[in-house]
Design brief:
With about 120 residues, the protein is mainly β. It has no helices and 11 strands.
């Protein structure tokens, strides 16, 4: 069992930046690929970014490439999503998730554990 808790969400103006954190409770954190997903009202949950267990590989959705970065600190059992140049369409509940693979998977179905989500709202 992996417990995940997101934090750092909030309201920011378009063009601004926000850093999300996800703290994991597990003794084998580095064995999990970690992903970020988001869900806007009325929409399906969609992939945002992922990072491999080592932190050496990352994946990003086309919609956020060049604007978002994902990183992890395995000593702190924490994964981060740094969001820059935010747009109103980035508004969503953001979830972190742990996969049963060390790879930076883009597939929602490969993630076994999910956090509670944190709201990100980007205003004009």
């Amino acid at each position: 069992q992996v417990l995940l808790v997101e934090s750092g969400g909030g309201l920011v103006q378009a063009g601004g930046s926000l850093r999300l954190s996800c703290a994991a409770s597990t003794r084998t954190f580095s064995s999990y690929g970690m992903g970020w997903f988001r869900q806007a009202p009325g929409k399906e949950r969609e992939f945002v970014a992922a990072i491999s267990g080592s932190g050496l590989s990352t994946s990003f959705a086309d919609s956020v490439k060049g604007r978002f970065t994902v990183s992890r600190d395995n000593a702190k059992n924490t994964v981060y999503l740094q969001m820059s140049s935010l747009k109103p369409e980035d508004t969503a509940v953001y979830y972190c998730a742990a996969a049963n693979t060390w790879r930076a998977s883009t597939r929602l179905t490969e993630y076994a554990y999910w956090g509670q989500g944190t709201q990100v709202t980007v205003s004009l």
